[in-house]
Amino acid sequence: xxxxxxxxxxxxxxxxxxxxxxxxxxxxxxxxxxxxxxxxxxxxxxxxxxxxxxxxxxxxxxxxxxxxxxxxxxxxxxxxxxxxxxxxxxxxxxxxxxxxxxxxxxxxxxxxxxxxxxxxxxxxxxxxxxxxxxxxxxxxxxxxxxxxxxxxxxx
Length: 155
Prior knowledge:
By secondary structure, the chain is of the alpha+beta class. The chain is built from 5 helices and 9 strands; from the N terminus they run E-H-H-H-E-E-E-E-E-E-E-E-H-H.
């Protein structure tokens, strides 16, 4: 899977997604050995399903203290934390930041019902996310019932 720094602007990340493809065999191998392989999202997938899903994923790396997702960003990706940890926050009307929880390897950052993220994700150290484009993930969930079940179990 391609590794893309999460600190790049979202428009750049989207542009790099389509250009950063590597061998499908390598992508499937990375998924098979991923620390999040036993996550709710990927855990029940059979090998052919995993290979197919891996064709449509990218990796995004992040450094300590980076904001990976900003509250209000367009929700064009879902994520699985594969390395590191994230703090999930929401900003109140009075400007104060509320910590909602923490995410660790295997945790899924699901897609909100609306078109924008309703939380921010801040890194607590260096790490990596596996990114799924919203439209492709929704199609894959229709094709693979185990993926759909795992996704809904994780949210």
